[in-house]
Amino acid sequence: MMNPYLYEFFEIFLRMQVLKEHMKIDNFRKNDAVNGRPPPGAVPDEVRKNWNFIRKGKVGGWKDYFNKEETLNKFDEWVEENNMDVDGNPIEGLRFE
Q1: pLDDT single digits (tens) 22-42
Q2: 52 within domain boundaries
Q3: CB of 28 within 8 A of CB of 54?
């Protein structure tokens, strides 16, 4: 009979391995629920195939998408208009650099 503490250790170790595999960015991209992909038949297959909410998974990756002054200005305007708490007061101290 296996030592119960050893059994528990291996059980936790195996769960961590499964979780580690699940958390890989490539697996996030394949997971429809995480990626926000519509269910089959909800949109044309071509749209569904190219639907990617999860991008590269690297720090600062947003800079690849917000790289034009015009886009940054539109984003800043949107944040200014929509940066309200539940009472409609502006939230102070938000900065994006």
Answers
A1: 888 888 888 888 888 888 899
A2: yes
A3: yes
**Structural domains in the chain (count):** 1
CA-based max dimension of the chain: 68
- Per the structure, the complete domain to which residue 54 belongs is given by 4-82
Distance CA 65, CA 53 (A): 13
Question: How do residues 38-72 score in pLDDT, each as one tens digit?
Answer: 888 998 989 888 888 887 778 888 788 778 888 88
Q: In this structure, is residue 49 part of a structural domain? A: yes
- The answer to whether residue 97 sits within a structural domain is no
Structure tokens at 3: 């030592």
